[in-house]
Amino acid sequence: MIRYLKKYWLFFILAPLFMLGEVSMDLLQPRLMAVIVDEGVLGLSNGGTGDMGLVIHTGIRMVGLVLFGCFCGIMSGVFANLCSQNYGNDIRKDAFQKIMSLSFEQTDRFSTGSLITRVTNDITQVQNLLTQCIRGFVRTFLLFAGGIVCMLTLDMSFGAVVACVLPLIVICVIFFIAKSNPVFTVLQDKLDRLNNVMQENVSGIRVVKAYVKEAYEKDRFGVANDELTGTQLDVLLLLSYMTPIMNILLNISVVAVIKVGAVQVEAGGVTPGDVMAAITYISQILNAVMRMTMIFQTVSRGAASGRRIKEVLVCEPSIKDGSFEEETGVKGKVEFRDVSFAYPGMGTENVIEHFSLTIQPGETLGILGATGSGKSTLVSLIPRFYDVTGGQVLVDDVDVREYKLSVLRAKVSVALQKSEIFSTSIRENIAWGDPDADDAHILRAAGAAQALEFIEDKKDGLATQVAQGGHSLSGGQKQRVAISRAILKNAEILIFDDTTSALDLKTEAKLYGALREAYAGTTRIIIAQRIASVKNADRIAVIENGRLVACADHGQLMESCAVYRDIYDSQLKK
Ligand SMILES: Nc1ncnc2c1ncn2[C@@H]1O[C@H](COP(=O)(O)OP(=O)(O)OP(=O)(O)O)[C@@H](O)[C@H]1O
Ligand SMILES: [Mg+2]
After folding, report:
1. From atom 28 of ligand 1, which residue's Cα is the shortest distance away?
2. Which of 218, 221, 390, 524 could make an S-S bridge to 364, C-beta 3.0–4.6 Å?
3. pTM score of the predicted model
């Protein structure tokens, strides 16, 4: 993910450079303070007579340095944030694009909640890591190293204090890092789980209420939430043991510096001002080490998040794009050639078994079969929502795997079994099928889909805003908006996956009549539960357990297909 930094290399360099300026000012202050004490107040080199002029003069220099340090600090913050925010923004865009290119099976494997966490919280953690690296880490490291150098230049004997205390502190820090590091991956996993429960509940709130499952879901959320809190507490408790221990060590060090300083002052090795400066330096050094613990916390958490984002970024879409994009001379032909299919991760259990069928251009094919017989699965192989595990699917005599995906999917228009409606206007929902369409085209498609009547009844017509998930529309209205969208796309092959189930028979008949008239050249594949929906199709394919049982027109099937007759009897012969 380092390559994302390339564009922002200047910010990436400027932030630590300005930080260097800020830290240098911090390190200079104790020196000047020592001058004020030793010369301005005590007048050590002037026979004990202080020098007010020197105090004022040095004081002004100190104020100047503080202001300069402040300016450097601000600039460092500005560049660090510019760098990390832009960096995160780019990764977020790429991660989103990658998620869009993944196949259904891959997004299912990640889970929706986890993908949301990765694109939001995980990227924020990585941004924090970056800011800490180019700002926090640089600052602490410089204060630490600079503090030691400055202290030793005052007097080497102060080094003894550092040498005694530092190993203790380093052991504490390593202990903390070793304990807390593994917790961060767990923490993000718990966050995934919480987001999954949250997402399922908000999108399924109607079902939750209908089944009076609020208490059950509240418990489920409670468990996920408690687990997250527990993990977070583990880290924070570790930290709260850590801080007082570090403080004790810090205070002992200060006392030790005073003791060493007092001995040295008596021996004439150092001045009282030097001792004061040394106290400030030892505090700076130890504070830097303490802050390092916090930084390691952010870095560990950011690294865990970075790994999770990388998993998304490097995930190769399992549906690989082909290169074929020429015209074939055939338009709207679909052929299943001995197709078998099993869902990924479901073992060898085939949902479609040795299925062979050719649908001719312009033909209307009905597909009929019991629930779970594999109808939706079969048609999802045409636009390559999944790839076959055996055999071939051909569109216009070319294997679907050879097509450039965008070319293949432009040929196929699917109205899915579950109507996906977006929270925007009805116009935009329909225009999704063809973003360039004008109102006349949209109204024509809506007309064929028998949606015009209800759209015109709405006060705002096409501009009517739809609530999230299409909840402000009835089931049948949602289906008709989705059908309008599919029709508007004007593709060679139009697939309706049980999309007229919520329409009454009269409206459904009008819809198919309109399609036959206005889109006669389009190949239509209509999946239905009701025989009435497909009775007038050129042919009807009857599917049982993923196998083709028969394929002929209604009359022939009534004569020759027992399964079809059974369905007919159960539905129409009362
Ligand atoms: N994403 C999936 N992962 C694993 N198995 C699946 C998946 N989708 C469907 N199945 C299984 O595949 C079989 C066929 O499902 P499919 O949705 O194709 O049936 P269908 O004929 O369209 O049924 P319905 O009439 O109820 O819509 C079912 O047993 C189902 O459980
Ligand atoms: Mg189905």
Report:
1. 372
2. 524
3. 0.76
